[in-house]
Design a protein that fits this description.
By secondary structure, the protein is of the alpha+beta class. Helix content is 37%, strand content 37%.
Length: 246
């Protein structure tokens, strides 16, 4: 066997294999391999395309974080005051049927930095609680928390339950696969080829975009309540599919 002619032949064969795997994303490699051997588009036996899709739905879960803060001359007094207020808040939320959990606790000194030397002026205690409810109940839940000792509403986030998220994920994946095939068919048609069966598929990570609330405070009278106007939650999916070319 002549070694001087075998090596270039192997290199050309390797270029053709790589070009076939790359599909539409590797068109330059396909053209280079074809030019080196005199091959045309009919010599490429596979095509690879990306597909993406996003679906939206109304949220079915609200995640609320509220907090109690207190300042005092000493750390013990600040901690004690927050502990008493949190106990009252936790009891009110629990009695209303919410499952409450602590998500943050801090106790730190407070300083006055207006002079050349900082001056200790007291201590601040902070205790945050989180719980979940339905979007329709979110405003009433916030009012209940504030009426029972919460001094801050840290976050109200509208999102999806695990079950609803899984449903939308399936819809997004199906649409992403359809998008990939449509892309592949368009590219293949330009080369007078058709798309056959799937040879391989890679699924990308899911994306979920919860909707941060827009809070509407109605303060016209003492009996007014908090209301929210949540927007849709989006779930996205992506796939990369390699098809056989016919």
């Amino acid at each position: 066997m002549n070694r001087t002619t075998a090596l270039p032949a192997l290199l050309v064969a390797a270029m053709l294999v790589l070009a076939g795997c790359a599909g539409t994303t590797g068109s330059s490699a396909t053209n280079a391999a074809a030019a080196a051997t005199g091959a045309n588009a009919t010599d490429v036996n596979s095509i690879t395309a990306d597909g993406t899709a996003t679906v939206s739905a109304s949220p079915d879960r609200a995640e609320i974080t509220v907090a109690v803060e207190s300042t005092a001359d000493n750390a013990s007094a600040a901690r004690s005051q927050v502990a008493a207020d949190v106990e009252r808040l936790r009891e009110a939320l629990t009695d209303a049927g919410y499952e409450v959990r602590t998500v943050d606790f801090r106790l730190s000194p407070e300083y006055d930095h207006r002079s050349d030397e900082r001056e200790l002026v007291g201590y601040r205690a902070y205790h945050a609680l989180a719980f979940e409810t339905t979007p329709d109940d979110a405003g009433s839940a916030v009012d209940l928390a504030v009426d029972n000792g919460a001094t801050a509403v840290q976050d109200v986030r509208f999102t999806l339950s695990d079950e609803r998220r899984a449903e939308l994920r399936e819809e997004a994946l199906a649409a992403a696969v359809g998008d990939a095939r449509a892309t592949a068919e368009t590219a293949a048609g330009a080369a007078d080829r058709s798309v056959g069966t799937e040879l391989s598929m890679r699924v990308g990570s899911a994306g979920v975009s919860p909707y941060d609330s827009r809070v509407v405070y109605e303060t016209a009278d003492a009996g007014a309540s908090t209301s929210f106007d949540p927007g849709p939650v989006t779930v996205s999916a992506s796939v990369t599919v390699t098809y056989e070319l016919e």
